[in-house]
């Protein structure tokens, strides 16, 4: 027991476990980005992959269905806001295991998520609830449904959280709240499940918003925010709001599915998945993330707040001019040229 504990602390020992088609991995959020990349990667490891996609007819789902040896990759539709699709995922998994007695669930990877950029006052309650319901409550619902199978097979649960769970950023407060909640749930669940032989792992990937569709609807989200502004909010925020969302155009719009070319990230994921002594926390980050995260542990809040503003490098608010302060009867904000 002591040796095992020391191995986890210092990452000593541990051997790579062999995987084969009898090892099932269920991954959520596979339409694009990290989920799609992990599906392709696990398929290359010779595992049987259940790729849960939000839209079974999406380009990502179709691309996965067209991979060689399609019997080892199964695409299912999963909407974490719809309990019936969660139950269907559990049914599909159980059916696969029942029909193949030598198969076992090796890992559940909770990757699906959604993100909305915008200051807290701007975001509508619908947008706030969406992030909490998908990122946190949806993950909890799916995991609870699958826990009996996970426990019986001594599977691993790999929860994809975020750097925002370690260091919250402005303009992402509901997203950060959902990911921080996921992190603390992960930590408690890890302790609970250890005695049943179940590993629960927190996997924090680097920033990959440019290669995923997690913020693809940002300009539509901005229009929804603007449509719910009061006259006073329009007067106060319009110029700043327009510049803010102009800056975010680069991440908006749906991108084709792609296999992320980040070998270091995939190497860490493989360690989390197949090492006999996995770490409880994996962090994959560029150097600047590491620097800011370390600084946040030592700097007083007033300094850290200043550094975070520099870190995010977003447009800033400017006091409106006297002309902008004049009363207006109606004013509509146009975003993305609409």
UniProtKB/TrEMBL annotation:
Taxonomic superkingdom:
Eukaryota
Which SUPFAM superfamilies does the protein's record reference? NAD(P)-binding Rossmann-fold domains
* GO MF, any single term: oxidoreductase activity
Q: Where are the annotated segments for Disordered? A: 319-338
Sorted alphabetically, the Gene Ontology BP terms of this entry are: steroid metabolic process
The alphabetized UniProt keywords are: Oxidoreductase
Q: Which PROSITE patterns match?
A: ADH_SHORT, PROKAR_LIPOPROTEIN
Q: Where is the composition biased (Basic and acidic residues)?
A: 320-338
Has keyword Isomerase?
A: no
* UniProt-listed InterPro entries: NAD(P)-bd_dom_sf, Sc_DH/Rdtase_CS, SDR_fam
**Entry-linked PANTHER family:** D-BETA-HYDROXYBUTYRATE DEHYDROGENASE, MITOCHONDRIAL, SHORT-CHAIN DEHYDROGENASE/REDUCTASE FAMILY 9C
Per the record, the similarity remark reads: Belongs to the short-chain dehydrogenases/reductases (SDR) family.
Q: What is this protein called?
A: Uncharacterized protein
